Amino acid sequence: MTQTRQPKTRIQQKNTSAILDAALDVFSQYGFRGSTLDQIADKAGLSKPNLLYYFPSKDAIHAALLERILDTWDEPLAQIDPDGDPEEEIMRYVMSKLEAARDYPRESRLFANEILHGAPNIKSLLEGEIKDLVDEKAAVIQGWVDTGKIADLHPYHLIFSIWALTQNYADFDVQVRVTLGEEGQDPFPGAETFLRGLFHKLLRPS
Fold first, then answer.
1. pTM
2. Is the per-residue pLDDT at 1 higher than 80?
3. Contacts of 51 (CB under 8 A, 6+ apart)
4. How far apart are CA 51 and CA 81, in angstroms?
5. Residues 19 and 39 sit within 8 Å (Cβ to Cβ)
6. Which of 111, 123, 135, 172 is 20 to 30 A removed from 74 (C-alpha atoms)?
7. Fold entry, domain 7-56
8. What pLDDT is attached to residue 77?
């Protein structure tokens, strides 16, 4: 007889959310190796034994965060519609990635740190579900190229360029603000205007 998992109580949901939010702060600041359960528990306002009631290890917390990040990031790519207007579909994806960089900078830095260390916790996902999704959408883009709906662009490198041009604003936030000479101000309106113009020219068939 299969046991039905009981839904979390309100306090369990609250503590789980507090742990993940605290861990996101700690991991994005110190990296996975430099972070400790004591730091996370202290940041969450919980005792270490209480934290371990919800997550058995630092690895489990890290994995839960990465899974949540990838779910958030994969959804806009999955929503690219083969039957939609190519430029609109790609531009919608660009803007969703820019919004993610603006709204989830800690998540972006956590993900970047994971990749820089060889993706030990998510390599199977990168090689499996994520690669399958990117392959699927690259085939859609290639179809648009083949039918002359967009410029002759390499679909994978187009996707890579979108990642690089948007996530940079989260991963290198301090550099962006200092270089612009507008530290403390919002660089995203200017980034949106620039990227819209850039991709409009890039995607236009010759």
1. 0.84
2. no
3. 19, 37, 40, 41, 44
4. 42
5. no
6. 172
7. Arc Repressor Mutant, subunit A (1.10.10)
8. 95
